[in-house]
C-alpha cells in the first residue's frame, strides 16, 4: 500500500515505519526534521500547521498514519492537528486516517476511564486529557478514522507478535499490569492497515 506516516522519527513512529517497510509497503515518511528518516523511504518535511500542505502531501495515498506527538508544554496542540488532519483527508479524497492515540480514555471499570480513576501519574495527565479531546474530535467527524490506544505502559521493547486486542477497556494481564512494547504495537497497527476491522472506531492492545 501507499502509506503516509506522520511523526516517522518519534519513538512509536520510527517503529511503525520499520514495520511498514518490512512488509513491503511504499511509505512517505513525514517529520519536522527529516535527517533521521532512513534513505530507503521517501522523506518529506511538514509541521501539520496548514491544511492545504497536508492535503498535498497525502494526495494519492491509500491511508495516513499519524504518530504525531505534541510539545510537552502545549499538549492541546494535538486537537488542532487532529482537526487539520480531518480537513486534509477530506480535501485529498477521504483517505483513511489511523491515529496513534493515548490510553487515558480507556475504561478501567464500567464508566470509569484511566484518566478519571486517579491512577495516572500527574505528569501524564495533560497529554492524556488532550488525547481524549482529540478522540472526541475524530468521533464527531465523518471521515474514515481509526484510533489505536496503547496499553498504560507503552515503551520500546521486544517484537514478540504475541498480544491481545480490545475495544474501549484497558487490556491488562493476570498481574493487573497493562503493558505493550512499541514494536508489538507497530505490528498491530499495520495489521489494522492491511485488514481493516476497526473503521470509525477505537481499539487497544496489551499483553
TrEMBL record:
Q: Which CDD domains match?
A: BVR-B_like_SDR_a
Q: Which GO terms describe its molecular function?
A: oxidoreductase activity, acting on the CH-NH group of donors, NAD or NADP as acceptor
Q: Record's Pfam families? A: NAD_binding_10
Under InterPro entries, the record lists: NAD(P)-bd_dom, NAD(P)-bd_dom_sf, Polyketide_Oxido-like
- Domain of life per record: Bacteria
Taking every annotated instance into account, which residue ranges of this chain make up the domain NAD(P)-binding?
7-191
Protein name in UniProt: NAD(P)-binding domain-containing protein
Annotated organism of origin: Granulicella mallensis
Amino acid at each position: 500500500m501507499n502509506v503516509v506516516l506522520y511523526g516517522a522519527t518519534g519513538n512509536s513512529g520510527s517503529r511503525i515505519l520499520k514495520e511498514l517497510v518490512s512488509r513491503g509497503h511504499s511509505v512517505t515518511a513525514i517529520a519536522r526534521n527529516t535527517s533521521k528518516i532512513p534513505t530507503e523511504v521517501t522523506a518529506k518535511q511538514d509541521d501539520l500547521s496548514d491544511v492545504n500542505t497536508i492535503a498535498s502531501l497525502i494526495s494519492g495515498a491509500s491511508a495516513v498514519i499519524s504518530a504525531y506527538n505534541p510539545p510537552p508544554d502545549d499538549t492541546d496542540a494535538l486537537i488542532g492537528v487532529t482537526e487539520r488532519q480531518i480537513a486534509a483527508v477530506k480535501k485529498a479524497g477521504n483517505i483513511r486516517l489511523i491515529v496513534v492515540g493515548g490510553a487515558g480514555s480507556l475504561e478501567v471499570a464500567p464508566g470509569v476511564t484511566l484518566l478519571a480513576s486517579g491512577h495516572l501519574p500527574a505528569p501524564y495527565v495533560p497529554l492524556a486529557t488532550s488525547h481524549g479531546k482529540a478522540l472526541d474530535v475524530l468521533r464527531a467527524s465523518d471521515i474514515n478514522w481509526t484510533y489505536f490506544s496503547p496499553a498504560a505502559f507503552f515503551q520500546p521493547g521486544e517484537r514478540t507478535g504475541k498480544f491481545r486486542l480490545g475495544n474501549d477497556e484497558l487490556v491488562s494481564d493476570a498481574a493487573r499490569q497493562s503493558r505493550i512494547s512499541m514494536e508489538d504495537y507497530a505490528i498491530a497497527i499495520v495489521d489494522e492497515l492491511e485488514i481493516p476491522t476497526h473503521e470509525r472506531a477505537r481499539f487497544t492492545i496489551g499483553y
